[in-house]
Design goal:
The chain is of the alpha+beta class. It has four domains: about 220 residues, no CATH class; about 120 residues, no CATH class; about 200 residues, no CATH class; about 180 residues, no CATH class. The protein is about 50% helix and about 20% strand. It has 22 helices and 20 strands. The strands form three sheets. The protein has a six-stranded mixed beta barrel with strand order 3-4-9-6-8-7. β13 and β14 form a beta hairpin. α12 crosses α20, α13 runs antiparallel to α18 and α13 crosses α20. The protein starts with a helix and ends with a helix. The model has no long low-confidence stretch (mean pLDDT about 85).
């Protein structure tokens, strides 16, 4: 029975591999993250503001719970990179001579010298642009064109996930982080003796919410945009969400494998015990106790489990290294080396052993309860009777071989049901790999084609008048342009609050249409706010209820605004209002701070050349660049995931069909041999057994589709976070792909069993028992 035992071990190995990979990856990332944050003094609280004198930072340092404060200057700037027509954006941050928080990990070169025209560049951007220490960059900072010499390449705990404004996927060719001296940036920004960015750490036991409240109270007069903790810091928030998704997924998939492996162990042990009834009786007659006999079979099950665990740990290490390559595309640490979690291996052994024990317990109990005298007798023959098809008089519609298969299925309904369930789970798992691709395809379709119809988003350094919109519309190749006013706010509802920016757009915007879950266009009313469904969930607010809106810029008004609609989006949390309503709320007249643009690609070079001449432009976002990055990173990740799920599902399907067929062959060997003797051909004899398996496979397909839908729904809930959400979308191809995969695996196992049927030893099988 080595083939059956090995098939069960493979199923166990798949479950163990997922446990080892996911738990080890969680431990690896968490360990690297903790060490990196501690060694480089990652801040606990962050806040951006308009402008404040440096002594204000000293007032904040005196707040209860504040341990250390680091004021600095930060701004977005345009870069002129050789060979790139479109503008490139850089986030420039001032760097003290001896920074105490968010210290850099220098990978090449050195840090900057005080007062020198030098810059340290982030490693992802340097790699994408082939920059080395000694090279120079040209930056337009606050309208001042400067040439800076690169003296170092570094990583920062603040930018483990380095994405530019509005980017879901990092685009390292078009966005990078740069660190320059305080004096250099202060001169460019006219902020000598002031700061517009603040980070700080907390004392042990300090209440973050109390400290944030104190910071906001002090900085309100200086244009504070609302302090927030690590959880809402963009880089750390994305990493935390990834760990949460990985943790949730580590509970879903292994459960399937452990259930299937318990079922397979049960049917394997039932067959072994059935064959060895007489040996069990003899052993008990000679004085072996029921406990000794039962322990013998439990040890046999544990040997199968041990083989599966060993294979699973090896597979988990291989999977972990493959996933480490994926994570390194998104998250940058000084060291990212996969380390197997020994506790995860121990947990996998324990859980697999429990599953094995549960799987064989019922059969072992049957074995030890059989009295020796009864066990020495051959098993009574099965109770043969017409199948339900024959009782209904429909036998004329089915062949003789098919009717024989139906009768055997009815004789053992529990065994047939468990086989169907195993195959259905295999199909569900096969669906998940393709479902993930369906979800990402829909996110791409929705985000980049249905709701993002502009080609370029131009952001300005400060809110400006509609004159800027007219200037943009006059640029070469501009087909259409629409204004946007983005306002930093804190939304409150009951005890819940959330920092974000409200997007003010035209009521019937054409370039950034707001769509509901049914893809119906939402026309923004003169009053009211439309929220993403995830944001409404976070705030606990429903359509028709009022939100308290605290504006964090300008005159900082407070407003009660009704929620007039919800939008099912898939990234971040967003809020939209009519741009006129936003302007009235701000009491600022017609003001904008960004423009959506649809351009003619024939004039793209001229368009970007003119954009580079506009000093007030802080950032230029290209939809094509975001889409290109999204496709490049997700395609590779999805192909790996799809392959893994396909392999795992094939192992389940093969194991279930092979074990069921082998047991059926062992149980019905006399019947099949008798058919050969009375004149059935080898093909007809194999057909009796394979027809039964084919019926079970056909019955499992609709159930597998149902399980696949349930599992897909569970996964969408498991990975739903504030930063990313998967839509529940399953296309027709996914069903066909899953059916084809299960049929292929089942056909392969059926082929091996059919060969064994054709090679039956007719004389040996037909020998009667003594």
């Amino acid at each position: 029975m080595r083939g059956q035992c090995f098939a069960v071990s493979l199923v166990i190995a798949c479950g163990v591999a997922v446990v080892v990979m996911s738990q080890s990856m969680i431990k690896t990332i968490t360990g690297i993250q903790t060490a990196y944050y501690e060694q480089n003094h990652f801040a606990d609280v962050f806040v951006q503001l308009k402008r404040a004198p440096l002594p204000v930072a000293e007032r904040i340092a005196l707040l209860p719970g504040v341990q250390e404060v680091q004021p600095r200057i930060s701004t977005l700037a345009r870069l002129d990179m050789p060979g790139m027509v479109e503008p490139v954006t850089g986030k420039f941050i001032s760097l003290d001579a001896h920074p105490s928080l968010n210290t850099l990990h220098i990978r090449k070169g050195r840090t900057i010298r005080r007062d020198a025209h030098e810059v340290v560049v982030s490693e992802p951007f340097a790699e994408a642009q082939n920059l080395e220490p000694g090279d120079s960059i040209v930056a337009v900072i606050n309208g001042h064109r400067q040439t800076l010499k690169i003296v170092g390449i570094a990583l920062s705990p603040e930018y483990v996930f380095e994405a530019g404004p509005g980017e879901v996927i990092p685009d390292h060719r078009r966005f990078g982080v740069f660190w320059v001296s305080y004096k250099e940036l202060a001169n460019a920004m006219d902020m000598d003796g002031a700061f517009n960015d603040l980070t700080l750490t907390l004392t042990p036991g300090a209440q973050e919410t109390d400290v944030i409240h104190g910071i906001d109270h002090i900085l309100d007069a200086y244009g504070g945009l609302g302090a927030y903790g690590r959880r809402h810091q963009n880089s750390n928030g994305r990493l935390s969400d990834e760990l949460e998704q990985l943790t949730n997924m580590s509970h879903v998939i292994p459960t399937i494998f452990l259930c299937v492996s318990a079922f397979l162990l049960n049917i394997v042990m039932s067959r072994i015990i059935g064959i060895q009834r007489e040996q069990i009786a003899i052993l008990k007659a000679f004085g072996y106790s029921s406990l000794q006999v039962g322990w013998h079979y439990i040890k046999l099950a544990f040997i199968i489990v041990l083989l599966g665990v060993i294979l699973g740990m090896l597979g988990g290490i291989w999977l972990g290294r493959a996933f480490a390559i994926i994570y390194m595309q998104f998250f940058r640490f000084p060291i990212f080396q996969f380390q197997m979690d020994k506790q995860a291996a121990g947990m996998a052994i324990a859980v697999s052993s429990i599953a094995a024990f549960v799987g064989v317990l019922s059969e072992v109990r049957k074995a030890i309860k059989i009295p020796p005298a009864e066990a020495m007798r051959p098993e009574p023959p099965a109770n043969f009777r017409p199948s339900i098809v024959e009782r209904l008089g429909l036998q004329a519609f089915f062949s003789q071989v098919l009717r024989m298969a139906m009768r055997n299925i009815e004789r053992k309904p529990l065994h047939a049901f468990m086989t169907v369930m195993g195959l259905a789970l295999a199909m569900a798992l096969m669906m998940i790999g393709s479902f993930l691709k369906d979800s990402m395809n829909w996110i791409e379709e929705f985000s980049f084609h249905l709701s993002m119809r502009e080609d370029v988003v131009i952001s300005f350094t400060e809110p400006t008048s509609y004159r800027a919109l007219a200037e943009v519309r006059s640029l070469p190749g501009v087909l259409w342009a629409e204004p946007q006013r983005v306002v930093a706010c804190r939304l409150r509802h009951g005890v819940h609050s959330h920092l974000l920016s409200i997007h003010g757009v035209p009521a019937e915007t054409q370039l950034e249409p707001i769509l509901d879950a049914n893809l119906h266009l939402i026309i923004l009313p003169p009053q009211g706010v439309v929220l993403s469904a995830k944001l409404a969930e976070i705030l606990g607010v429903k359509v028709g209820e009022n939100l308290q809106v605290e504006v964090l810029e300008g005159n900082r008004p407070m407003r009660e605004i009704p929620v007039v609609g919800l939008v099912q989006d898939y990234a971040g949390t967003n809020a939209w209002m009519d741009i006129g309503a936003v302007n009235r709320m701000m009491k600022e007249g017609d003001a904008i701070n960004s423009v959506f643009v649809r351009e003619d690609k024939l004039y793209e070079n001229d368009f970007f050349a003119e954009i580079k001449k506009m000093p007030r432009v802080a950032n230029v976002t290209l939809k094509s660049a975001i889409l290109e990055g999204f496709q490049a990173t997700t395609a590779k990740s999805l192909n790996i995931l799809r392959s893994i799920y396909a392999i795992f599902a094939s192992v389940i399907a093969f194991g279930v069909v092979y074990n069921s067929a082998r047991i059926a062959l062992a149980e019905r060997g006399r019947e099949l041999a008798t058919l050969r003797v009375v004149g059935f051909t080898r093909r007809e004899t194999s057909g009796v057994l394979l027809s039964e398996l084919a019926l079970l496979i056909v019955l499992s397909l609709p159930l597998g589709m149902i399980f696949g839908n349930i599992l897909a729904f569970v996964i969408t809930r498991a990975v739903s976070t504030e930063t990313i959400r998967l839509p529940y979308v399953i296309r027709t191809f996914t069903y066909a792909y899953a059916v084809g995969g299960v049929l292929l695996a089942a056909s392969l196992s059926g082929f091996f069993v059919a060969r064994q049927v054709e090679n039956l030893d007719l004389i040996g099988v037909l020998k009667a028992r003594d």
